[in-house]
């Protein structure tokens, strides 16, 4: 067997059993990575591991004692896997999450893969759905023949995409498959999410207003939903903040509660309590709910 550069991997089985033939390898050319195996069906020339420079036309020549020699040519294409994809935002590589972002902000996410051959294909996905791209750019290295590819996805920061994973896939073209139909090179991926700063959607005091007897305690729960990062809740009576509050964060930060315990006195009758929820990063977007105390004497 030989390549077009006349690199030989002879196997001589003219004497004795075919599996006990004599072999020789050109170690200078293939570095001892090539060997001829007669165990497989049909017998094969094995390159292990294959290098990019091994690409080319290989010729198998069979010489017979009494017949004319035969030749078969095989064109070997060496696929270089795409380099690991990287996500770029504002010219910098980002890992894990992009942000913080404000609602309505435009976000250009560029996925970049360097080093594949043939030219890799880059795609962006969200929850199993392929997304349309803004731009795709590529360039090649004249020495190695490998490619650098970029695919840019444009999004608008909003509540619907906050915390959602977006994944870039880098893979070789779909026509490159093995004999069993499987991809020669498995896709490589990079996943990013969006860190969007959001005001609370709702601040509400739970329960309906009910008259309460003087001298009894009342427990009121204020609940904020949808803030990112979690909302800060404050109870007020007039212009005075109330201190008897227990705060909790639930559902991964999406829900915040502030529980107020207060001893109601007769003079509290007609007092309006306020609960204010605010995202500390958005101090100009507070939400408020009120609760009016009705006190009677037993």
From TrEMBL:
Family matches, as Gene3D superfamilies: Immunoglobulins (2.60.40.10)
SMART domains assigned to the protein according to its UniProt record, in alphabetical order: IG
InterPro entries (alphabetical): CD80_C2-set, Ig-like_dom, Ig-like_dom_sf, Ig-like_fold, Ig_sub
Keywords recorded for this protein, A-Z: Disulfide bond, Membrane
Record has Electron transport as a keyword: no
GO cellular component terms, A-Z: membrane
Ranges of residues in domain Ig-like: 22-77, 84-193, 199-294
Localization: Membrane
Pfam families, per database record: C2-set_2
Topology in membrane: Single-pass membrane protein
Entries under PANTHER family matching the protein: OBSCURIN, SIDESTEP PROTEIN
Protein's UniProt name: Putative sidestep protein
Organism for this UniProt entry: Penaeus vannamei
